[in-house]
Amino acid sequence: MVRTPARSPRLSVGKRRTCPLRASCGARWPGERGPSGLVPSRLVSLLLFLWLGSGALGGWGCRRAVVSPQAGDADMPTDAVVGDDADSARVADAAPGDAWPLFRGTPACSGIAVGNAERVPHIEWVYSAEKDGFTASPIVAGDSVYLGGNNGTFYAVSVETGRLAWKQDIGGGFLAAAAFHAGRVYVGDVDGKFFAWNAEDGKPLWQFEAEGTIDNAANVFSAGDRPRILFGSQDMNLYCLDAETGSVVWRTALPDQIRCQPPVAEDRAFVAGCDGKLHSLELLTGKELGTCDLDGPTGCTPAVMGGELYVGTESGFFFGIDWKTGRRLWQFPPERPADAFRSSAAVCGPFVVVGCRDRQIYCFHAATGETAWKFAARRYVDASPVIVVPENGDLAQAVVVVGSLDGRLHGLRLQDGSPKWELDLGGAVSASAAVVGRRIFAATEEGDLYCLGLAESASP
What we know:
- The longest helix is centred in the N-terminal third of the chain and has 7 residues.
- A hairpin with a 2-residue loop joins strand 10 and strand 11.
- By secondary structure, the chain is mainly beta.
């Protein structure tokens, strides 16, 4: 249903409003809706997330393979946004300008979009899902926004009008973002079912069943001319399926649950697992090449840029890792842990941005781990940030777009964290935004999907 929100969203430009913290901001996993909900309580979730083991830092080797990350029908980037220059970056490893086909935009899970988010966004439309809520993040491809609800309905909504194009009522809830490739939508649910649907009309194409909840988004890559789907499950397996048929290409068992989207870089796939380790696997075969100790479990999706990988953990550490050698380059904080990281990082040029359960949004220097800035939200920041960079790569105009459980969507200047704008969406935001062209798509746990329009150029 397309509607105007009953409570008008409030905009704030260039400064912070102050308000008391709510007493009800207890810790929870994204998607938990309390005793009456369909998903586990905080206690059950934490028990599921126990760290079953630890190990020493391990090096790893690599056998070269011919693979290419893919997602959607648009040409995917081939170069990285790189460089030590804090003023500019080459905009290449960003999501294609006309789509956000994966949870973090790209197969490397960089969380970068091309656009201009300096001006205050305006509401184009709001789609409200009756008796449903969103903790899964939206993806965008073609004419539609695709998003699964907590109560088991999957929605395809028109980008232009906000009207429902089609839906699938499955019964099991959706906590993971979908993936789009070549006219198909792929997504898993809490019952362990993984679906492939025709993106245009929702017609079922095939279905696969894992043996545990799927609460992580799928990734897409190609082996030669054959597209593959990559995802994990709480049954402790990483699955690689043929995208056309749903048949299993390979399956690799790991020591504990998998809750992160597996990023892809060169001929590798990576899993940050509940066993407290980062796993490096050969993309074509699933063979494990090595592990790196993370000092605690995690469900965060690692962000890969060049030869480095960035990920936070439930135990409150955030790491920069050389994924080619398996060596930890730095950690934050150096000694005493922070609160849990359940936000997946975004990385662009010299900056890494991530949210934390200490209510802070952190920006680190990617090379050293030193804190460039931090911004205080009013509640937990479980949503993953998106770095919106203009086409000319000028980081002085780049804006971080990120939501928090206080119901606000923030636009922060990448270089110093100063607020550019703030929008109150009227419901907790644990899902990450999708940024496509001149639009931001953001969803709330109250069941509202917002389409926010962006200005074509920055303000003077």
